[in-house]
């Protein structure tokens, strides 16, 4: 690729700094052994040796493309030759070498002995600040001075790369290029697809003959091919292994697998599919992601749109159902509803206790409620009071007494039952009139006695053995 070399940059800087014109007047062509034209130009390049220089000529035409770009052209007709060249230099009027280009070794032949020679044109594009003003070039560059092929190729590359950014390596719309099996034949469905940014259209159903052996991969080969008046996307469907390549004409081919035929003959789909229809890609994206909404469209329970973030006050006041809350706001609200140090009963195993809760086991400042019963504060108890035993048993309850009295008239009966624990006594007094009876039954626990004095009455007592009660409770805080 051509480049302004160090001596040229110094020349241009000196001239523009002194407010003098930049005057480039001559082309120099040379044939240098061992020159690799694929390498970048050496910025320290100097003028070739005299025996390597094969042609020198004045600039044929010059023009400007933009205020910072100027073109210098050399036209060699059939009278120039014969010689080979692979090096071109642009020289200023004071002999300074300004710019250099490496090219593939080229023959310039003159017409001689009835054999037609060739015409060759070479153009140098120089770009530097205020190039047009510095060189004094006032004529626009002619069409022939511009490498239109390079321009058009660059346009195709930009278009393909832009599509590649959107559609990725390969994309197909709906059933486009889908392979199906129908009566022993494989059919490729019509539609639109993109491979490496090249848009390919299958206008109608395509029938592909069945392969001689299975399984097989079915591939789509896509390239951009030049015609007389256009560049077209060309495709080929074939059985084989996918792999991009450059053909003998230098054209890049992109190969994508679209189906895999199983040993049973059934086709497996290998396409990347998007449900894009005639409404276009933008509608597909809008429907799929709902990202495109009017700035005036607010979201509701049924419509997508813009939503507002709730304030902390709105969260606590439950102000509306149109705003949203952040995780921080949500947890603040939950902490407000269930503050720290609130204890709840947990019906489950300790291992299943949910995250954010902890067993009240006396650790990390938590109260120890294992095998304890919670009693509400107030009266005899204050907040934080503790007491009791790990294993409480019931026993006697002090010395006490029970008194029962009855009065009756006529034939009737009285029944009474007393139950006590601990050392105590029972006293029953009866008075009677007429024929009647009294019965009293007592049950006891622990060592104690009953004393009953009656006349003409039947009394019974019962006894149950000593026993106890255990109470266990687990609490969560």
UniProtKB/TrEMBL annotation:
Region (Disordered): 384-449, 458-477
Top-level taxon in the UniProt lineage: Bacteria
Organism: Microbulbifer okhotskensis
Biased composition (Low complexity): 388-449
Protein name, entry field: Phage tail protein
One Pfam family per UniProt: Phage_tail_fib
Domain called Phage tail fibre protein N-terminal: residue spans: 4-153
